[in-house]
């Protein structure tokens, strides 16, 4: 076999992902808060880049002199009105949030007088988590203070008598028993079920419980109803205050004169420009100086960032405009009119790639007349209904309505729900019904049954 070496030229096309292109893709995917943090970093790193001051012209209020004269005529009456009224202070309108720890500490100082006991009680409360459970052993606390376990157990019982009921428990069973004891509802049977059959209650295995305890199905279900009415996390009400998260919409859609107006919410993103001082340095310095090379690089980076931000804004606007045009019936009439929509539909409409549309909607929210939604909410798969398609969200709503109207003693199985939907010309499979039911946190028929 003869082998030869030769040189040849071949022309090919390749898409090279430059660093700037990669960063532009990341900018498109960033939500407003993350983008603002990135811009602040760039402002600190790039001296050429600066933010424009957010100054708006102040409109001088026009005085209605006729109304002003009428006010002066009655000045003696209004002169001292609200003069000493502290309730009108804006500080009084700030909500006061009490934490679980503060709530328990307040009760401790009312219930316990001995300084040593107060110190130990405070230590116990500091070991109660946000759900209201004590996460420290009595023996460890006793060893920490070098005292007997009996005294620690006594203080724990005092704290367990505080509000909310069930706080300071060391397990779910102790928490439920404390609540029933406080309501004077605890009896031998309830305590036995909580200690031995709690998992069976959760799975609605009332037949097994009734057989084990030699009681009727109705009695077993009544016990289950009582236990399910209790609060498994007594500190939940206090815990929620510290975990409130606010969503700032990236886009706002408003209806004006029968048309939907779209505006990209860029109030959190500072307006950027290039510093005029560094522009003048480029004209003054020698063309080959190091200072000028440095300024040129920074100026190119600043110009690229400003251009990328504008491109990001236009892309998001185009994507949302397309979504609004597809989902206009939903915005006008509600959830039942939400249409099936895919990334491909929007991409073809605005002549962009599907991946670009996917990045544009990632982690972003839109404020509409119907409420606040993530942009991904509008992209749902369709189900055939005769010649039309309806969205999966509409199907979920129909399934929920069917389950709400069912006979509790004979709940509908997923197959029966499927048959009902098929009779309504909604072509759907049983596994799809089961999937949608689970997504709505609705238990299967066996766990919905009432005796």
From TrEMBL:
Entry keyword set: DNA-binding, DNA-directed RNA polymerase, Nucleotidyltransferase, Sigma factor, Transcription, Transcription regulation, Transferase
InterPro entries documented for this protein: RNA_pol_sigma_54, RNA_pol_sigma_54_core-bd, RNA_pol_sigma_54_DNA-bd, RpoN_core-bd_sf
Domain spans labelled RNA polymerase sigma factor 54 core-binding: 92-278
Coiled coil (residue ranges): none
Gene Ontology MF term list: DNA binding; DNA-binding transcription activator activity; nucleotidyltransferase activity; sigma factor activity
Residues covered by the RNA polymerase sigma factor 54 DNA-binding domain: 293-450
Any GO CC annotation of this UniProt entry: DNA-directed RNA polymerase complex
Short name of one Pfam family: Sigma54_DBD
Top-rank lineage group of the source organism: Bacteria
BP-aspect Gene Ontology terms: DNA-templated transcription initiation
Xref: PANTHER family: RNA POLYMERASE SIGMA-54 FACTOR
Similarity comment text for this entry: Belongs to the sigma-54 factor family.
NCBIfam families registered for this protein in UniProt: rpoN_sigma
Protein name in UniProt: RNA polymerase sigma-54 factor
Provenance organism: Oxobacter pfennigii
